[in-house]
Amino acid sequence: MIIVTGATGFIGSCLISRLNQENFNAIIAVDDFSREDKLANLEGKRILERVDREEFFDWLDDNYHEIEFLFHIGARTDTTEFDRSIFEHLNVEYSKKIWQKCIDYQIPLVYASSAATYGLGELGYDDNESLIPQLKPLNPYGDSKNEFDKWVLEQEKHPFFWAGLKFFNVYGPNEYHKNRMASVIYHAFCQINQKGSMKLFRSHHPNFADGEQMRDFIYVKDVVEVCVFLMHHRRNSGIYNLGSGKARTFLDLANNTFLAMGITPQIEFIDTPEDIRDKYQYYTQASMSKLRSIGYTQPFQSLETGIEDYVKNYLIPGNTL
């Protein structure tokens, strides 16, 4: 059996699809299944059992001897949520319990961290673990992910294999339920589909022209390929960046979305809201040398190919992965 937490969510459901492709069909899907708006993400997938996240640890105590691997993808990811108790429960304490169970039962573990831990990137975007205690995230979500990363590095006992993945700007099918937290590509498609045009934030930084703000966008299909690689690899435990390794502009993103939809670009620039203006990231780019150094050789899809696949094969026809 393979456990996937956050199973109905964006990345978790795409990971289950990828595991099914390799004929891993004894999937234990862990999540809060009361969110009916996400259940479509599990349609057509081969899953052995669904376990509510609050009942999961009791279930694991009874079934640990059958577990081959655990992917802890589930988390509260809303960067606009400021109730720290929610993140403390779901992102920190819950993750600590999973870590301890993986030690007790010798289960290898991959868990989701986030590039939100890097804050404004004052120290760069290098996944050198010695820098993690110095990072300054910009919101409670980023804090919660960094707190768990720091806690992991302080532990004397570890699962026999573990990896934390700092996801950068992930986009792709199955994210429709994320509302404001969905990728800019998803929002661009929806705006263009409704109005034939889209809005981007104006730059308020002297070093960046409007639309030239840059982010490291990574297609979800690349994310799950790395997860499967680590499941098979099971060596070189540690915390790793997971981006494409190449920063691209929001204009690149917008123009490629228009192109994939067959529509002439019409872009309007609007002021970045004042409540997030001082915390706005103008540049992110993952250093990917650490993951490459342990033998991951597959190329990451370009923004062009990722957007084309996402728009033409999922967004336009309304498909899930």
How would you describe this protein?
It is a single chain. The protein has 321 residues and is an alpha/beta fold. It is 36% helix and 16% strand. The mean pLDDT is 95. It has a seven-stranded parallel beta sheet with strand order 3-2-1-4-5-6-11, sandwiched between helices. A two-stranded parallel ribbon has the order 7-10. The chain has a two-stranded parallel ribbon with strand order 8-13. The chain is globular. The longest helix has 21 residues, at 84-104. The chain contains ten helices and 13 strands. It has helices at residues 10-21, 56-63, 84-104, 140-154, 184-195, 220-233, 250-261, 274-277, 289-293, 303-315, and strands spanning 2-5, 27-31, 49-52, 69-72, 109-114, 162-167, 169-171, 198-201, 214-215, 217-219, 238-242, 248-249, 267-270. α1 packs across α6 (220-233), α3 (84-104) runs parallel beside α4 and α7 (250-261) crosses α10. It has a domain at 2-171 and 217-245 and 283-301: Rossmann fold.
Q: Which secondary structure elements does this structure contain, and how are they paired or packed?
A:
Layout: E1 2-5, H1 10-21, E2 27-31, E3 49-52, H2 56-63, E4 69-72, H3 84-104, E5 109-114, H4 140-154, E6 162-167, E7 169-171, H5 184-195, E8 198-201, E9 214-215, E10 217-219, H6 220-233, E11 238-242, E12 248-249, H7 250-261, E13 267-270, H8 274-277, H9 289-293, H10 303-315
Helix pairs in contact: 1-6, 3-4, 5-7, 7-10
